[in-house]
Amino acid sequence: MKKAIIILMLLLFCLGCKSQNVIVNDISNNLDTNYFFARIDTKDIIFRELWNGGQYVKVFKISDSKATPENYFEGTDEVLISLIISTAPDGDYYTNSKLYKIEGLYNPSILEIKEEEQFKFTIKLEHGVFNKREVETFEFSGVQ
Fold first, then answer.
1. CA distance 123 to 111
2. pTM score of the predicted model
3. Which residues form the signal peptide (predicted)?
4. Cα angle at 103 between 98 and 76, to 5 degrees?
5. Each residue of 11-31: pLDDT tens digit?
6. CB-based contact 102:86 (threshold 8 Å)
7. Within 10 A of 67 (CB to CB), how many other CB atoms are there?
């Protein structure tokens, strides 16, 4: 009798569980998103936590043929690099995130991501050909 009650309770429990509805959406028509994901360099994703975890910054490199002027690299298939910078506050606040793009860089290297005044930060990077490298600093606003 005890086994029958346990089996009955397990059946009721299992029947009462609802499965999660999994939905697959085709987002191929979002051309910018499709372009970014197709061109992203997954080896060089940079992640920084700023203000003791109050803000998170991610930097993605993409090979950006749209930002490369025609005949810029004559005789080769090279393209310039763009950086996609995502900043989001702590927690699941993706809707309040900010997204920036620095485009038209040749062989960029991030030297520093630095906190400035609250919710502002700078990214210092070096770019250019080997004998004419330039160092530039860009300022961004995070999410408040």
1. 8
2. 0.78
3. 1-19
4. 145
5. 666 665 556 678 888 877 888
6. no
7. 17
Calpha distance 140→87 (Å, rounded): 9
Measured CA to CA, the distance from residue 144 to residue 62 in angstroms comes to: 27
144 burial level (CB within 10 Å; 0-12, 13-18, 19+)? exposed
Q: Residue 16: what pLDDT?
A: 58
The tokens of 101 are what? 């793009």
From CA 117, how far away is CA 50, in angstroms rounded?
A: 11
Evaluate if residue 47 carries a pLDDT over 90. Answer: yes
